[in-house]
Design brief:
- By secondary structure, the protein is an all-alpha fold.
- It has one domain.
- Helix 4 runs parallel beside helix 8 and helix 7 runs antiparallel to helix 8.
- The two termini are about 25 Å apart.
Length: about 250
């Protein structure tokens, strides 16, 4: 029995590295992927939200550093969303969500994440358009609150939004999303810790995830084919989506 548990732990760690690699390569922290994995491996719901936020902070920070180093980051694309998303993420992180609603909303979120990864929406718009700051402020408010409530950084929503509206190209979107995820996850975690305790056990997955995060950010900020991991991760997300929504 001990051997079986050891094999399951190794499998989880391998998948965690793969998730961190894939998400970091496109400027994301990977919260939706971590949530999916922890759900599949029957982690307690009460543990998943703060652990996903902690992982998001580390991986998105690494991703942002690499994309900024390659000069893909544009402050003008970032700050209108951040102005409203940060306080909204704090409020969302402070709130306790009904378990049934949590699972249903999370299932929908993971489905959207899967579609995004598979390219059904959010493809790069070849025609760049100027950012509309009023819309960015409104979108930032909604994304921030939802992200803090569920335990993600919001990049899974912001990236396709930037691409669909033509406000950024793929690399710019990745760089902006990475910092957006970092600040929202930090605000969400701060809101969470104002009403809940955060233990050392919420950090023990960080070193494992950093292995994939550093490699993914390094190659993703340049040029690296990740279609194989993209489809592998999509299968994981779909399974988790079904489990959360229907089981």
């Amino acid at each position: 029995m001990g051997g079986l548990e050891f094999n399951i732990t190794i499998l989880f760690f391998m998948l965690l590295v793969a998730v961190a690699f894939l998400y970091a390569s496109v400027g994301h922290g990977g919260a939706s992927g971590y949530i999916a994995l922890m759900s599949l491996f029957s982690f307690p719901i009460i543990f998943i939200k703060p652990a996903a936020l902690v992982l998001n902070i580390f991986i998105s920070g690494i991703s942002f550093w690499f994309f900024k180093k390659q000069k893909h980051f544009k402050w003008s694309l970032f700050y209108p969303f951040a102005l409203t998303s940060i306080p909204a993420a704090f409020l969302g992180g402070y709130l306790d969500v009904n378990t049934v609603l949590y699972r249903q909303v999370l299932g929908v979120l993971l489905l959207l994440a899967t579609l995004r990864i598979l390219g059904f929406f959010g493809r790069e718009n070849k025609t760049k358009r100027p950012l509309k700051k009023s819309l960015a402020l409104i979108f930032g408010l909604g994304i921030g609150f939802f992200s803090g409530m569920i335990g993600i950084g919001g990049g899974i929503v912001l990236s396709p939004l930037l691409l669909l509206l033509g406000w950024a190209d793929l690399k710019e979107s990745a760089a902006v999303s990475a910092l957006f995820i970092l600040v929202n996850s930090s605000a969400g975690l701060l809101g969470y810790t104002s009403s809940h305790s955060l233990g050392i056990d919420h950090f023990y997955l960080v070193p494992i995830a950093l292995i994939g995060g550093v490699l993914g950010a390094k190659y993703g900020s340049g040029s690296f084919p990740n279609y194989i991991l993209r489809y592998t991760l999509s299968v994981v997300l779909i399974i988790a989506c079904v489990k959360l929504t229907f089981l």
